[in-house]
Design goal:
Strand content: 15-25%
Number of helices: 10
CATH topology: TIM Barrel
Shape: globular
Strand order of the largest sheet: 1-2-5-6-7-8-9-12
CATH superfamily: Divalent-metal-dependent TIM barrel enzymes
Distance between the termini: 13 Å
CATH architecture: Alpha-Beta Barrel
Order of helices and strands: EHEEEHEHEHHEHEHHEEEHEEEHE
Number of strands: 15
Helix content: 40-55%
Amino acid sequence: MNSPATQLKLAAFADEIANELDVQIAHCRKNGVTHIELRGVAGKNVLDFDAALRKEIKQKLADNGLGISAIGSPIGKVRLDEPFDAHFDRFKIAVELAAYFQAPFIRLFSYYPAAGASHADHIRGGRDEVLRRMQRQVDYVKNLPVVLVHENESNLYAEKSAQCLDLFQSLNSPKLRCAFDFANFVLAGENPLDNWRQLKPYTVHFHVKDARAADGQCVPAGEGEGRIGEILADAFASGYRGFLTLEPHLAVAGQFAGFTGPDLFKTAVDALRKVCREKRIPLAS
């Protein structure tokens, strides 16, 4: 029997199950998911929760023995030419929420190109401004018990691992680390195993979705080209004991959220459990 200290914790973007909080909780419990990556409830983004909704979520999660793995914010999903101060105020809300929900991580992104700029222009000409914005965010949390975890995604500055590595090496802060997303690297035309070799020293969190390169379809863990089993086995052998956060996108994959539904969510959980069993990776539940 493995002790909790030697087990990985199963989490989920529960808004992929349903909008309703009670349905999210019920299906997380039913599937042995112990933590929620808080992104949406009742059709509202996490940064737009009012005080009453925050209180309701916190109480119901506590009553059901569920924790928060991260604040699944959309910070950094704006164009680089959009005013930063207003966006930074949104970032401050994410930090406040992390404290309120005792979340160890805040998920964020690395900004879209300015209007009319190509992605190549963004990488060449936008780098300094991306780093400036990310540095300001890192500085804001330097004395707080939270870590910012960057997720790569299509058209962002750090869509591919070279730019992800640039962020982590240039800012060189334990307050900015990697949320490794297998499918997003597949969809970026890269080999996640190569990405893992580069980003392993910076990875403190995993988002679990898989994908096929040929058609861009998200699929259950182990059925695509994400190399999930190999990477998780190496992470576990190297001492990783954090979260595996399901973000399956099995029904819909959108710019700001995905959807899976209750039945396909079970499919996603079962697939990840199968991968972990085959690689002898123990999961808490």
